[in-house]
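Notes, Module 5: Reading structure tokens.

Key idea: the token line is not a picture. It is a compressed description, and you learn to read it the same way you learned to read a sequence, by spotting repeated patterns. We will look at two proteins. The first is printed below with its tokens.
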Amino acid sequence: AGCEKEPSSYMWIYILLGNMLRGIGETPITPLGISYLDDFAKEEDVPVYVACLHTIAMLGPMFGFLLGSLCAKLYVDIGFVDLGSITITPQDSRWVGAWWLGFLIAGVTNFLAAVPFCFLPKSLKKPEETNNDKTSFDYSTVIMPCIFQSQLIYPFLSDFYTSLKKVLSNRMYFTLLCCSLLQFSSFIGFLTYKPKYMEQQYGQSTSKSNFLIGLTSLPPVSIGIFLGGLIMKKYKMSIIGATKFAFLMSFLAYTIALSHFFVGCENHVVAGMTVSYE
């Protein structure tokens, strides 16, 4: 009866809250960072700068997979038990790696990387070379007062609803949004389940699966993003030109991705399941 008792640990709540705080801290980087680049950089340089931003963002998961590969080789209770008494190896299905060590290292790294932001000025002067047709928006004048002054919450929400309705009524933006949702959904599923697939189909350890994915999947994406920014800058593509370019590259990518359906191994030979006992 004791073996049938369900686990009562609530440690997953701490992981949930930690990831929620991490997401809140990371969210402003992309929308506000891209808006800043679009407002303050020269028009022909914006694609390269945005490409650099996304390229660096892709390098993070790559190092994360490599770090996860290293942590998976270490036993989960490292520092608390005598490793000489551990009789199983990372190749054993009962092995549990030090998954918590990656959160600790990444948390300290994020904290150190956030320190320089404290020394940035509150407001930045806009260069005179910036095109006059670009409209800049000072988020601090609207968002910050709304956080600290309750009487401004309602006007802010009203303006936000109006802006959101106007943005979503843009057919091109809405189509791009739906396309991005589909792309990221497939990409996340690819990264989530491919390590397990490699473990089951190709007999690889968790550590080696993470290492191979971090080394083969993410660097090509980073290179592609950076090259795309350079190509857009060189040919000075308009919105229509960039749309055609994105459509062509996506079509080629999906065509090549179809080859995954033809890659795999036969099912494992298991007596009584895939083959008879005889």
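Here is the second protein, with the sequence above and the tokens below, as before.
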Amino acid sequence: EFMQASWEIEEVQAKGIQHLASLVKDKSAFPYLLTCTEVITHAMKTHTGSLDLQVEGCILLHEILSQALEQGVMMALDERVASCLLHTVRKHSENEVFISMLCTLLMMVSASEVAAENLRKVGIIPDLLSILRRFLHNDKICCSCCAVLWSLAVSENNADQAVLASALPVTSAVLQEHLQNGVVAESACSALWALALQGCLTDSDYEPTAALLLDALRMNPERAVLVRNGCLALASLVRLSETAALAILLDPKGSGVELIKDEYHLHLEEPGVAEALCLLINEMVQYDEVMLDLRSQKMEKLLCEMKLQFPFS
């Protein structure tokens, strides 16, 4: 009430946020803090010129969301809150340190389907792409933005086909730039998978995207989630075009089939990886020429191994 009575007075909003922040450690205050997110974001929107207030508001929201996630509470932030966050993104889009913090917050928010849908509605995708282009070197920002893109792209009622299509070159650039950084590569592979699911690729995209995903698998073979998501992305590409299947077979950097075999044996205890590999193989055998090649490379033997390893899956 103290904050709502004096929106225009920056000092009141700053003091209010500081006092709320002092209550974060008190577990009994948590249910009440959950109701304050709109007040905090409105204070941030009203005083976008004050970077200090933006930072303190962002840290407080991060603390509240972290506690919510720890306790299994999904915070479905409404469209007004999403709009406030977008306003803040645009006002401070060139401040790398602050944008890094804000993108982490957006990643946490987008874990909720409702919140992700609200971020999509207020039109945050072009801003995310702009941030990625500007801070392509920043692994933390790239990781967060790709995770948000994934959440927004997998929305079932997605009407942003044209906007999402423009995300492909930027997401590919992120993966190319951070191939050796497993955390970022994992996030970028997930985003590429979502873009493939939404049909955002053209004929000229299949081969280079498949080659890039294979590079990610080669560079990070031990990361089960990356391997799983990378294979699911490849499966989506192969479903759309035989060109992607041939790109896997004929990759100049090494046989994609041998890579599939190696990944399976490396993750023998991971049913999720095996399922993704099966899905990829299943898509590949839809093409006669590709199936003949897979037979000649004894893919049936691998499938029999999988069947024995996971008899109940």
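Summary for the second protein:
- The mean pLDDT is 91.
- Residues 51-70 form the longest helix (20 residues).
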